Structure formats: structure tokens, C-alpha cells
Amino acid sequence: MPQIRQKDVRIDTPSGTPVPLRIYEPWEAQADPQAGLGGALLWIHGGGYVISGPAQDDAFCIAVAREQGLVVVSVDYRLAPEHPFPAPLVDCHSAWTWMQAQAVALGIDPARIAIGGQSAGGGLAAALVQQVHDEGGPQPVAQWLFCPMIDDRTAARIDLDQIGHRLWSNRNNRTGWEAYLGREPGAVDPPPYAAAARRTDLAGLPPAWIGVGTVDLFCEEDRVFADRLREADVDVTFRLVDGAPHGFESWASGTDIAQAYLVEARAWLYERLVVQSPATAGVDEQLQSRLAIHLLQSNRGALLCVAPPPTGGYSQHFRG
């Protein structure tokens, strides 16, 4: 697999605000200008809209870049409450625009860029996809959403406060949404693109992969969002992982469940980004083989979290 070069750059928003980006590039793509343009991922980190930065996802982004030969660009967007909506989304949109303008220099095909993120980053990714769709022009080939934080109305549900959701409780959720929106969540319709699940018309959006655990606070809002995308004839793959809490694929990434989940997620992304060539023709089979090995090595509980039972269950793939 290729070695990955990591570098930090700064770009500007239309108003001149600097936005740091962290770029993960396969060395081979830089060394061989005749290799052709490859796919890319615009990645948006999580943190409830109020904390964290790209460094928390270094290992994740390096793995994606190395395994699939992709250029990954991670956005160090401004955080609430100092910078509420729309500032974080403006920063992410600026990163998307920059990737389009710098595609050749980056060695990427502007028609093969996916947008993804985790938690609040998943919410920003889904909102950015919607904004780019409405603007016209080049479109992302896919949206890749891990436990996305997409519906402020969940935070308004006081009945959820008493449930002990691991890592991210509804009280945390309310704090994050209040900081991001600058007002009480769920009370009134937020402005366009502030909460991706509030959008009424989801038709025409790119294929989506959405993954979440059954004991994650966001389980229900993510499932509903996936259902609504399907009803709008969007190609959706929804992965519901039995017994998994919020962000398990990050803080428990070494477990069998998380490893199998991530292999499957990356295989989905690969299918939408990487064009088959003599150099990459066997990669799909390699990914599927790795997934099978993970499943065989997992215990029965882990296996149920990854393999859909004959009657249906956690895993659903909807095609419009």
C-alpha cells in the first residue's frame, strides 16, 4: 500500500477568513504525474460543533488514503459558540470550492470527490451536500456519514435526557445545538442548511452511506433521514450496528465490530470513487476478502452487527 504524505495548508473564505486544511496524499500519486487523476474525500471531523479538530481523525484519514489511494482533505472549521452557523459551513464550503479549483494540482478528478464526516462533521457534510446541490455545478459523487448529528429537534426532547447515552448525551446535544444555532434547538425552523434533516426536498442528492449504533442518541434521527432519502429516490445504504454507542468506530477502532464496520464502509466508498484500471483491478476483491476475514474472526455478537439476518434487520440498502 502507498505511503501517505501529510501536510497542512491554509485557504481563505470569500470574506478572507483563513481556514486550515490537513491533506493526506499518497506518495505514488505525487511521484508519477502520468498516473492519472484519482478520487478524493473531503472529510469533516466531529465534536458537537463546539470542540476538536482534524488531528483527532489522523489515523482514520491516513487509513482511507492509504488503502484506497485517495487524496483526503480534512477541514479545520471554526467552532461554536464563538463562531455559530453559518461560519462552520462556510469554511467547509470553502474547502469544497478549493478542492475543485486545485483538482489538477492535487491529482484528483473533480467529478470523483465524496463528502463525508462523523457526528457534527456528518451533519456539516450532509448540509454541504445539500448546499452544493442547490448551487448547481460540480457535484459530490457520494455522501459518507458516520453517526451524523443532523436534527436539532432531538435535542429538544427532554424525555431523552434521562437515558445514559455513552459519550454524547442529549444534554450535551442540546448544548452543542444551542451553541451552533445561537438559539434554542427545535423551537423554530432553522435557516437553510443549518440542520440537514430539516430539509423537505431530498430528491436529486448523491448516493449516501449512513452508519450508526443502536444505542447512539442519533440512531432514530439517522434512520428517519435514511428512510426519507430512500423515499426521495436517493440510493441509500444504512448500517445499524447492534449495541454500538456513539462514535465507537473511533474510540474502539481496534475491536472486531469496529474493524469490520470500517472495512465495509470503505468498500462502499471505494465503489463510488475508484475507477477500475489494471493497477487497481483487484482492490475490490481484497476489500471483500478482508471483510470476510473480520466476520469469521468475530464472535457471534459481532457477527450479528455486521451480517444482516435473512429476515432483514440492522442492514438495509435502498435504491431508488
Global morphology: globular
Name the average pLDDT. 85
Query: How would a textbook summarize the main sheet?
Result: 9 strands, mixed
Give the strand order, joined by hyphens, for the main sheet: 1-2-4-3-5-6-7-8-9
Task: Tell me the number of helical segments per DSSP (H or I, 4 or more residues long).
Answer: 11
Structure description:
The protein has 320 residues and is of the alpha/beta class. The protein has one domain: 3-Layer(aba) Sandwich (Rossmann fold), CATH 3.40.50.1820. Helices cover 38% and strands 19% of the residues. The protein is built from eleven helices and nine strands. It has helices at 27-31, 58-68, 87-101, 103-106, 120-135, 170-181, 219-231, 248-251, 256-273, 283-297, 300-306; strands at residues 4-12, 18-26, 38-44, 71-75, 108-118, 142-146, 208-213, 236-241, 315-318. The chain has a nine-stranded mixed beta sheet with strand order 1-2-4-3-5-6-7-8-9, sandwiched between helices. The radius of gyration is 19 Å and the shape is globular. Mean pLDDT is 85; it is low at 275-285 and 287-320.
Provide tags for this entry.
single chain; 320 residues; alpha/beta; Rossmann fold; nine-stranded mixed β-sheet; 9 strands; globular; disordered C terminus
Task: Describe the secondary-structure layout.
Blueprint: E1 4-12, E2 18-26, H1 27-31, E3 38-44, H2 58-68, E4 71-75, H3 87-101, H4 103-106, E5 108-118, H5 120-135, E6 142-146, H6 170-181, E7 208-213, H7 219-231, E8 236-241, H8 248-251, H9 256-273, H10 283-297, H11 300-306, E9 315-318
Helix pairs in contact: 3-5, 9-10, 9-11
